[in-house]
Design goal:
Blueprint (H helix, E strand, L loop, with lengths): L28 H14 L7 E5 L5 H7 L4 E6 L2 H10 L4 E4 L12 E7 L8 H11 E12 L1 H4 L17 H10 L3 E10 L1 H9 L4 H11 L5 H8 L6 E4 L8 E7 L1
């Protein structure tokens, strides 16, 4: 996990919208690293494979996967995002397309990566059917998504206005199985030792400390900003224990 995603210097960085995270912004570093650890954890599934990233966002993840894959096609619906990825990450092929109808023939890819995307989709069942269609027999579907239990605790609707439906671990498993996949791995992202120490330093949760600053709209306290800037992917751990208490869910399923 020594990979560090490049920050493009030949194109205008994508703006923060709340719908995606981007590298190279100090205040966003915690969320970026929390996403990055999942890509690093799952990258070995893409070794020498033809990979579709369905919903690539800023593109840093597709570029990470391109370090092991034979070929990566990054797909996103937003035209500005597609133009950014094409300029910033030349080893990634990129196209504009709708995840409701993937623009690939049946069995075209070995891996579909869908990281922090499925919670944005209205028709999750239809999307998974499309993933199964474009995957070669035995191909891998890689999924991460916020854990509903910890991300929007005690709510029927997501806190994040860009999310349509969040999932708990058993709900994600059921979705995958109902779509015809065999679940090979279902785990979760947790804070490692160093992040647990930062949680204690900031009143029990470094996440809540960041949210409080964002809601207040004021300047970041220097101590908090320094702590957030210091977070690395290695500060998170991914495992199968205590999935309901995890921050994000991580699944590997086979067609």
């Amino acid at each position: 996990m020594g990979y560090r995603a490049p920050v493009a210097t030949d194109t205008t960085p994508l703006p923060l919208t709340g719908e995606r995270t981007v590298p190279g912004i100090v205040e966003e570093n915690y969320w970026f690293r929390r996403h990055e650890v999942a890509y690093a954890h799952l990258a070995h599934h893409c070794a020498d494979a033809v990979v579709l990233e369905a919903g690539c966002g800023e593109g840093y993840g597709a570029d990470l996967l391109a370090g092991t894959a034979r070929r990566v096609l990054a797909l996103d619906y937003d035209a500005h995002t597609v133009a950014h990825v094409a300029k910033a990450y030349p080893r990634v092929a990129v196209a504009r397309g709708n995840l409701a109808g993937l623009p690939l023939r049946d069995g075209a890819v070995d891996v579909v990566a869908n990281l922090q995307v499925i919670e944005h989709l209205w028709d999750q069942e239809g999307f998974l059917a499309e993933c199964r269609r474009v995957l070669a027999p035995g191909g891998a579907l890689l999924v991460t998504t916020p854990n509903r239990i910890t991300f929007s605790p005690g709510r029927d609707t997501p806190l994040n206005p860009f999310h349509t439906r969040e999932l708990a671990g058993h709900e994600l498993r059921d979705l995958l199985v109902d779509a015809g996949f065999t679940v090979e791995f279902l785990g979760g992202v947790h804070h490692g030792l160093r992040l647990r120490e930062l949680d204690e330093r900031f009143g029990g949760s470094i996440i809540d400390a960041q949210i409080d600053v964002a809601l207040a709209g004021g300047a970041w306290p220097a101590e908090l900003l320094e702590a957030v800037a210091s977070v690395r992917a290695e500060d998170f751990v991914i495992g199968e224990d205590d999935i309901d208490a995890s921050l994000d869910l991580v699944a590997v399923a086979r067609a």
